[in-house]
Design brief:
With 209 residues, the chain is α+β, with helices and mostly antiparallel strands. It has 2 domains: 1-30; 31-206, Glutaredoxin. It is built from 5 helices and 10 strands. The strands form 2 sheets. It has an 8-stranded mixed β-sheet. Strands 7-10 form a two-stranded antiparallel ribbon. The longest helix is centred in the N-terminal third of the chain and has 23 residues, at 3-25.
Length: 209
């Protein structure tokens, strides 16, 4: 094979590799993450009570409200009481809240594990508040904001993504909410229906990594 043909083969391979990478990661260089209908992998993350938490810890759950959040983002802070209320409303119905902090404390010093523990104690969190130290879980999900919600439902021993996006239509002001996107989706699942609004735009701070 002459030099020209070798160069053409090399260039063709490089182009194929770039196309494959773009289709997997998009133009931001980050994993596109889960989409509706995907099966979410199990997790095994450190909780603020120093125990490890996975979905397997909830054998009787019907699904999970997974919320990527953090200590100090104003949108996350404005959502804390709502997240506590969601856990109180839906944990007895089979959908407990699992909160995950994906922020790197070397980028955002207020998001250390110790300050997560302090936050959880001060606010009286009734749900696990997990530390995604490797930043691998948020990347697999494709979370971009805090808060960013993923609603999972157990189906045939898998956790299937049913809703992705915002908690409701007013992240800044809980008293002004008109549409409870997440709650509506859970009630539809409890009624044996398909989720009518499967995706909304998550509004919040960018994840700090």
């Amino acid at each position: 094979m002459n030099t020209k043909k070798i160069l053409l083969v090399f260039l063709a391979g490089a182009v194929f590799t770039m196309i494959a990478a773009f289709s997997t990661y998009g133009d931001s260089g980050e994993s596109a993450g889960y989409t509706i209908g995907d099966a979410a992998s199990n997790i095994n993350l450190l909780n603020v009570d120093n125990t490890m938490v996975s979905y397997d810890n909830y054998p009787d759950a019907l699904g999970f409200i997974v919320i990527f959040t953090c200590n100090t983002c104003p949108y996350a802070v404005a959502s804390e009481d709502r997240i506590i209320a969601l856990d109180a409303e839906f944990k007895p119905k089979g959908y407990p809240v699992i909160a995950i902090n994906p922020n790197d404390p070397s980028v955002q010093p207020a998001d250390t594990f110790e300050l997560m523990q302090k936050k959880a104690k001060e606010k009286g969190f009734t749900f696990p508040y997990l530390y995604d130290e490797s930043r691998s879980v948020y990347a697999e999900y494709g979370a971009k904001k805090t808060p960013h919600v993923y609603l999972l439902q157990k189906e045939d021993d898998q956790n299937i993504v049913k809703y992705i996006g915002a908690i409701d239509d007013n992240v800044r002001n809980g008293s002004a909410v008109k549409e409870r996107f997440l709650a509506n989706a859970i009630y539809e699942l409890l009624d044996g229906k398909e989720v009518s609004v499967t995706e909304t735009k998550a509004i919040g701070c960018s994840i700090k990594v």
